[in-house]
Amino acid sequence: MNKSHRIALFLTFLILIFLPMKAETRHQMEKEQMGREETDSLLTARFDSLVRVLLPKGANVALMAYDLNERRTLYTYQADKLGRPASNMKLLTTITALDREEADEPFRTEVWAEQTQESTPDTLYGNLYVVGGMDPEFDDAALDSLVAQVARQPFKVICGTIYGDVSLRDSLPYGNGWCWDDIPYDYQPWLSPLMLCKGVVQVKATPSPVKGEPAQLTFTPASSYYTVDNQTRSRTPEAGGFHVERNWMAQSNHLVVGGNVDRTRSSSLTLHGSAELFMHTFVERLQARGVSLIDTLTGSPLQAPVYAWRTLPSDSTATTSWLVAHYETAMQDVVKQVMKESDNLNTEALLTRLGAQSTGRRHIHTEDGLKAVRELIKRLGLNPKDYNLADGCGLSNYNAISPELLVAFLRHAYSRTDIFQKLYKALPVAGVDGTLKGRMKKGSPAYGNVHAKTGTISGISSLSGYLQGRSGHWIAFSIMNQNQLSGRDARRMQDILCEQMILSM
Q: What is the pTM of this model?
């Protein structure tokens, strides 16, 4: 027997051995497939029944559940149906921001000194530039840190101008489709590259020991940018409920604080002009630290905070200009606030930065950031033209997306460890923290299991995120309730569906 005959005989032997095994394997696979189809059919029937029972007349819901381990869809109900996502829009913005190579770069606010003529050790003959980086977490302590760094410089006199540089984004303070009558509320921010305390003043009222006397008021941030009329009365019920107001229609920053203060009360209000609040307070505190401003025309000291607006010259690295101070906020801190507290300002800051990173320029429009989101939609195999994106945070009534799209983004995040780790730990946890603290509490199978983003606008309620089924498999899901007047009922439906996903999947 020659070599070729021996090889042929050996191959025939192998075929005879493995053919029955393959047939048996194929039979097992077919059996498993039939079992899976039967299970899927029962699952579909169960959730279809739940939807019929839980959805009130006139309302609508769209939902999708996807097994991340087996990479297959477990259940869909109108999953491609468009609806307003409310704050579930934040998932698209955040995941796109985390998808970039520059994702970990911090938000940065800088102060530059520009010498225009020969200076003395204690006098700067030139200008200061405060360059906004759209840091949404820049607070009172951050401002004090920035001011302290400037105050430590050798110069104690500035013979020039202090400029605010807000060139990072356009001058539009609100998003497309935001409601005009939400202007005074702290959830609708005034957008600017220079933000102090989110452009919001926090008011705390402590009752006086003497009944009928005005309460003691404290404000954060403390600033002369706004004025106050204290009309409160301590322990006087007839004074009415505690309130903080301003004539926002007239763009006034005169605060009227009134009503009964029977115990410590607090409230917050968005001010008109975020960048102005920042610059006014910055200069005011710089003066309080002993840095004097000199009028270049008269040579006399300026008592009131004076500032102007100008972009830092492009040759800022020249020997006549140098970095005086800076403050940074970590990206993860911003993302955590977006997810846990559904912070609209933080999300729009992410969107602005997306636009800057993707275009490589300044004077960013909202559309620049949304273009980056659409590019990721396209990469995920979906058509951006099938959806309407109007803002980054979901305040807009013009957004129109689907559970299918949200799950596609959640799947993408899960496939990237670097994205998933940051996103997952930032998401609210059912019954534990964030906007899910009061839902799916102890005793529910969803407690501590569901990590998801909420979304609420009048008539709209959404919930999208991750959970682990009883099988141990990871599930990405999205539930979008539309045209449902009772937010409580919509949330109850979502909670029940999540519990059933855990028990059934």
A: 0.90
